[in-house]
Design goal:
Chain lengths: ~260, ~240
């Protein structure tokens, strides 16, 4: 499915129809087997939980959204800066890249105690976890965009005696923009996951009730319908951020002279 | 492009080109045509010997692919060499206008992006980008090889018009014999192997040349000579 057609209403009704079918089936099954609400709540139970808990849900979604966006923005800035440094020296790239991969593979649960020790629990730590989780795709995609440049274009710039800065500003950075957009889309999805996971492990304070906290507390209290509502809110938040980044990206690429499909 | 520095690609090359001359370099693929061009452009350093032009001669290179920057408009692409060379704004504007005119582009075309252009149009922009620096030597590395025959012939004619208007020295690498004969004052057939002999074949057709030239018997005979020489690997002298 292409980026642009994704926003067309004609592409919306098939998944909406499927949702309706699934919800109806779900409702019918819970009614037929008469499962307890704390085990499998029906769609109407979840809807009731949303109605009852709406304000808290909305506030939590907003808090998590702010943390995700802050972490994502930090990833964008940090990732591009790191990629630019990587692009300037083979030695730096060779020595640092393995440690960038470390970001990708480290289990957050393993470093959560360290983060709490150093930065305490709360918003800054949640943003830090989001940054750690969403940074790598930006570094990886931007670095390859800065480096995967056609030899002919490099020769063209060399022919006119371009210096390192001209090469960076006029060739490498603009060339990396479509790559950055691709990396940012991946990263935006991971940022929401990062914020929720962050709240789960390092965000539980009296001042920061994000969706991660809501998921944790509702499951501990067996408020399964409320848990479902929190999970749905998390998914919607992820889709919203991913959709926004995709839209901004494809708008940018259309002006960039390349379509988003490349 | 990667070059193995242990084995010489070119050896025993002695090529002199007078100012204003149009020289076509033909040869089998892998004979070092592109290497010769990149040596002349100063993009490669010779392992032995010298490559020289007159003092401060400005060199421009046109590649086989147009190699336009997709995020820049036509006019911005043409402007690029002047930006890199630090030419002042007013001068830049005037020269870009000149170059646009040279390839027959209007104001509406100047603000288009490369992806909105046809293959031939992109090649014209690439040519204009080379000419905007007012080069003393224009090097062309099989610029029309990827285009269909009709368009190639049309662009050959346009290139000759530009050449006669500017008087620029041109070195044109191609493996198309009729293209070489149509364009050049001299066709240089490169040997298939290193150390072989370079055969220089003068082309005496008067200028300006037009499409009708291709239909003449003299043209066919000379093209036949060049083809034979190319087949023999540059061993046999033609004249």
């Amino acid at each position: 499915m292409s980026v642009r057609s994704w926003f067309r209403p004609t592409e919306w009704w098939p998944p909406l129809l499927l949702l309706l079918v699934v919800l109806t089936g779900w409702q019918a099954t819970t009614w037929w087997f008469d499962w307890p609400v704390f085990l499998v709540p029906s769609p109407t139970d979840v809807a009731a939980a949303v109605a009852e808990d709406g304000d808290r849900l909305l506030a939590a979604t907003a808090r998590t959204g702010v943390a995700a966006i802050a972490g994502f923005a930090a990833s964008l800035i940090g990732g591009v800066l790191i990629a630019v440094i990587f692009s300037q020296s083979r030695l730096v790239r060779a020595s640092c890249y393995p440690y960038a991969i470390f970001l990708q593979t480290v289990p957050i649960i393993a470093i959560a105690p360290l983060i709490i020790t150093w930065f305490g629990t709360g918003f800054p730590s949640v943003v830090l976890v989001t940054l750690i989780i969403s940074l790598f795709p930006i570094i990886a995609s931007t670095t390859s965009g800065l480096l995967n440049i056609d030899e002919d274009l490099l020769e063209l710039f060399r022919l006119y005696r371009a210096d390192r800065w001209q090469l960076l500003w006029k060739l490498r950075l603009p060339h990396a923009v479509p790559y950055l957009v691709t990396g940012a889309r991946t990263s935006s999805g991971m940022a929401v996951i990062g914020a929720i996971v962050g709240e789960f492990f390092v965000g539980h304070t009296t001042t920061h009730y994000g969706l991660g906290y809501l998921v944790l507390s509702t499951s501990q209290h067996l408020k399964t319908a409320h848990l479902f509502a929190a999970v749905i809110a998390s998914a919607l938040l992820g889709i919203a951020l991913f959709g926004a980044v995709t839209w901004i990206g494809s708008t940018l690429l259309a002006r960039w002279g390349t379509s988003g499909e490349e | 492009m990667a070059f193995d520095t242990r084995h010489p690609v070119l050896e025993g090359v002695d090529l002199e080109i007078a100012g204003g001359d149009f020289v076509a370099l033909v040869g089998p693929s892998g004979c070092g045509k592109s290497t010769a061009l990149r040596l002349m452009a100063g993009l490669l350093e010779p392992t032995a010997g010298t490559v020289g032009g007159s003092e401060d001669s400005r060199v421009a290179l046109v590649f086989q692919e147009p190699n336009l920057l997709p995020w820049r408009t036509v006019a911005e692409n043409i402007r690029l060499p002047l930006e890199l060379l630090g030419v002042e704004a007013r001068e830049t504007q005037q020269r870009v206008g000149e170059s646009l005119e040279l390839i027959g582009f209007g104001q509406a075309d100047a603000v288009k992006r490369p992806r909105e252009l046809s293959g031939g149009m992109r090649m014209r922009v690439s040519l204009a980008r080379a000419l905007v620096t007012r080069p003393d030597v224009l090097l062309l590395d099989e610029p029309f090889a990827a285009l269909d025959d009709l368009l190639r012939e049309q662009l050959n004619e346009e290139l000759l018009e530009i050449h006669s208007a500017r008087g620029t020295t041109a070195v044109f690498v191609t493996h198309n014999v009729s293209e070489a004969v149509f364009l050049a004052d001299r066709v240089v057939v490169m040997p298939a192997t290193t150390g072989g002999e370079f055969v220089h074949i003068p082309v005496d057709f008067s200028r300006p040349r037009n499409a009708a030239l291709r239909a003449t018997a003299d043209f066919a005979r000379l093209a036949g000579d060049v083809s034979r020489c190319l087949r023999d690997g540059g061993r046999e002298m033609v004249r």
